[in-house]
Amino acid sequence: GPEGGTPLVLVMGLGGSCRGWLPLQVPDFGRERRVLLYDARGVGQSEDPGVPFSTADLADDLAGLLEALGLRRVDVLGAFLGGMTAQEFALRQPLRLDRLVLVGSYARPDAKRRMLLEKWKEMARIDTPLSIQVRERLLWTVEDDTMEVTDLIDSMVDFFTREGAPVSNDLFIRQCDACIGHDTRDRLRQIHARTLVLCGRHDQLTPPKFQRELADEIPGARLVTLSFGAHLVMAESAQRFNQIVLQFLSEDR
Asked: Which among 50, 14, 8 has a CA at the least distance from the CA of 29?
C-alpha cells in the first residue's frame, strides 16, 4: 500500500493462512493503507515450536514481529482466533495499537462453542478426510443462502481438498485449544483502543450475542452487524465489509 500512515495488520483465524486475505481484502485495503500480512506460528513457512499455546502467546508473537519490522504503532483487524489474538494484543501492547477491528470473535466461549471445538479437535485427531472437515466447518461459517449455491460450495471443498489444509491436524488441534482457553471477559474494559466490532447477522459460530458483549464491555466500541453474511462475512459481503472497515480507519478521533 501507499507509504505513510498507520499500517493495518490482518490476523487470520482458525485453520487459515494469510493468503485468505489476498483475493477480497488486500486489493481494497492496499489502495488506502499499508497492509501487513503474516502467518501465525506453524502456518505456512512460520516456525512451529510444537508446543501448546494461548491467544496471549499469539499476541506476543505479533508484538515480536512488529519489533523485528520496526513498526511502533499499527491498526489490527482480526477474525475469530485472529480477533482473540487482537484482544490480547490490545491488552498487552496498548501503546502499539491505534485502532482495533474484531470480526466474528468472542471474549469467552460458552458451553456450545467449547463442545463444537472439541468435536473439531476430535475430527482432526482421528484424521477425518479433509473434505468432510471442510464441509463440517462450512455448515457453521456460511450463510444459508450461500449453502444453496451448491456449485460454489463444491468448488470450495474441491479447492481446499486439492490444495491441502493450510495447517496440520496437530496444529489445528492446538489452535482449537487456544480458542477454548481464550478469556478476556473480565479485562475488556482495559482496552482503550478505538474499536469496531463487525459481524454477520446469521453467524452461527459466533452469534451476535458475543459481538454485543465485546461492544458493550470495550469502552466506546462500535458494533456493526451486516444484514447478509454469516461467520465468513468478509467474503460473503466483501464490498460492504471493506467499506465499513476503511471508513472506520479513516475517521478522525
From this structure: 8
pTM score, whole prediction: 0.96
What Å distances lie between residue 252 and 31, 99, 175, 202, CA to CA?
19, 11, 36, 31
Q: How far apart are the first and last CA of the chain?
A: 23
φ and ψ at residue 197, rounded to 5 degrees: -110, 125
244, burial (CB in 10 Å: exposed 0-12, middle 13-18, buried 19+): middle
Enumerate long-range contacts of 110-113, CB under 8 Å, 24 or more apart: 113/179, 113/180, 113/205, 113/206
3-state class percentages of the chain: helix first, strand second, coil last, to nearest 5: 55, 15, 35
Tens-digit pLDDT profile for residues 176-195: 999 999 999 999 999 999 99
Of 136, 132, 98, the closest CA to residue 117 belongs to: 136
pLDDT tens, residue by residue, 8-21? 999 999 999 999 99
Contact 167, 15 (CB under 8 A): yes
- Which of 76, 34, 42 has the alpha carbon at shortest distance from 59? 76
